[in-house]
Amino acid sequence: xxxxxxxxxxxxxxxxxxxxxxxxxxxxxxxxxxxxxxxxxxxxxxxxxxxxxxxxxxxxxxxxxxxxxxxxxxxxxxxxxxxxxxxxxxxxxxxxxxxxxxxxxxxxxxxxxxxxxxxxxxxxxxxxxxxxxxxxxxxxxxxxxxxxxxxxxxxxxxxxxxxxxxxxxxxxxxxxxxxxxxxxxxxxxxxxxxxxxxxxxxxxxxxxxxxxxxxxxxxxxxxxxxxxxxxxxxxxxxxxxxxxxxxxxxxxxxxxxxxxxxxxxxxxxxxxxxxxxxxxxxxxxxxxxxxxxxxxxxxxxxxxxxxxxxxxxxxxxxxxxxxxxxxxxxxxxxxxxxxxxxxxxxxxxxxxxxxxxxxxxxxxxxxxxxxxxxxxxxxxxxxxxxxxxxxxxxxxxxxxxxxxxxxxxxxxxxxxxxxxxxxxxxxxxxxxxxxxxxxxxxxxxxxxxxxx
Length: 452
What we know:
It contains 16 helices and no strands. By secondary structure, it is an all-alpha fold. It has one domain (16-443).
């Protein structure tokens, strides 16, 4: 049986697949609604502002992803430690860990917001943002970056709840804020004619609402796990563990995002139509990617709790079965994109430009054809982080960065957008094989004796 107490879930007992999937379903719905933010922005822009508006959003989206992945990675790393502390039953250190997580998120979020807004225009020039969409792109991204603390606050609150085994509550707040985002998009863009800046403002307001609601819920229902006055004193060993784990995951995400920045620069140098196609195709396959990343994220919480409880056989069993789940979803994604790819692109963008549609389909179909290696990569990265293996996932991201740099220097100038389309599938295969080799080695090492 799963032991529950005060809206928490103990994952160290019971059927691993049933536990992970039950935990993942509300998390999946939440992630879908979170993806709706960017999807709605793109649809509103395409249907009411035109193809260039989509290009304006897509031309600088990697800058936001780079900064948010740094904050997101740090937060996820600290939450991995919290899940291990919860699994071990050490409530006093759990409260200290929660204090450290709040401090780190506040400091990092404030610094990233200030630096990104100050350096935004030079960064956009470095990205070769096309002149015909430069100012529109700036108006969009400066508002998004200025409201970054709202996203950091929500992710931190939701991450805390997930570490406690509660993936359902953040979902309700996220659904509410997604609906609010849709309503505000319609208000600002369609009725008030604020242009692309309105879509960004709608996103920031909606994220702020979800963050406030989630934090209030935690304060009301999880006071026993929240820091007390004495818990704000730094426990050097615990703080160091949280910082190193968070920094490791943040570096993994940042190295990955740096590669995306390099690749986006080469995409921006091609044409506005290519930027629009790339943005549209990514919006579709990122939506299909959500179930895979969600299963992996849920598995990492399971792995973290069971690693803290020293139940290593459960970890290996769960990872094997979750790979089968990833395979099934990969096959489904391929079927969707090969049969419904074109209408999905047209629905999203409202474009009639055949160059945009053809390039978007090229990227969409090539990417989903290699979804299973990506799913395996997700499982391996998250699980190894949850077990305290910090270096190898970062090394796999370094491989990713190297391939993207090589692609931007050689493949894209030679093959055009085809070079972009083949880059990420090649990366997924290489990195999955790299981590699989080490995971098998680690799995065959002698583990400490498990709890009965």
